[in-house]
Amino acid sequence: MFKNYKFLQPPSTRQSEVIKGILDFLQVDKYAIIHETQEGNEKLAKTIISEGKTSTGYVYKALLPIKDLYDSATRVLIAETLVKIKIQEVKVMVLACREQSVKTVLEVARDLGMVSDHFLWIGTETVVRATSNTSMGIIVSNFLGIKLNTSEETIGKN
User: In a 10 Å sphere around its CB, with 0-12 CB exposed, 13-18 middle and 19+ buried, how is residue 99 labelled?
Assistant: First the structure.
């Protein structure tokens, strides 16, 4: 039906600007960036952190393992990372990772009680795509996702 259809994902700099805008609007000074080092997520995290430096702010940068996230050893590493964030009483998490990783991260977070009303998750466009998959089976009580308009007519105007 759509022979020449192309999905254009916004660059990480645009997504980081939007996420930083959300954090500023909500006056969040303590948050965690949970990310992988691939697909531009490292750049996104660095941009948010560099733009978000304040004298009162606290940013916890949590790096996810890049290997397959379905084995038990990797789940333990993710659990250790999320427990450190929880101990620091961080209530806002920015998640930037591959679609394959989203389910595993949120399953571990659910098991730790971190997808309840007491936590806010902010996800990149990739995370939004993964969470909109109904077969994922995880409900995050407070979730804000980035979905930037990347239609051809909008891109042409910009």
Answer: middle
What's the pLDDT at 49? 74
Residue-level pLDDT at 154: 47
Six token digits for residue 81: 């990372």
Residue 98 contacts by C-beta under 8 Å, 6 or more apart in sequence? 36, 38, 39, 126
Q: What is the 3-state secondary structure (H, E, C) of 97-108?
A: CCHHHHHHHHHH
pTM of the model: 0.79
User: HEC profile for the chain?
Assistant: CCCCCCCCCCCHHHHHHHHHHHHHHCCCCEEEEEECCCCCHHHHHHHHHHHCCCCCCEEEEEECCCCCCCCHHHHHHHHHHHHHHHHCCCCEEEEECCHHHHHHHHHHHHHCCCCCCCCEEEECHHHHHHHCCHHHCCCCCCEEECCCCCCHHHHHHC
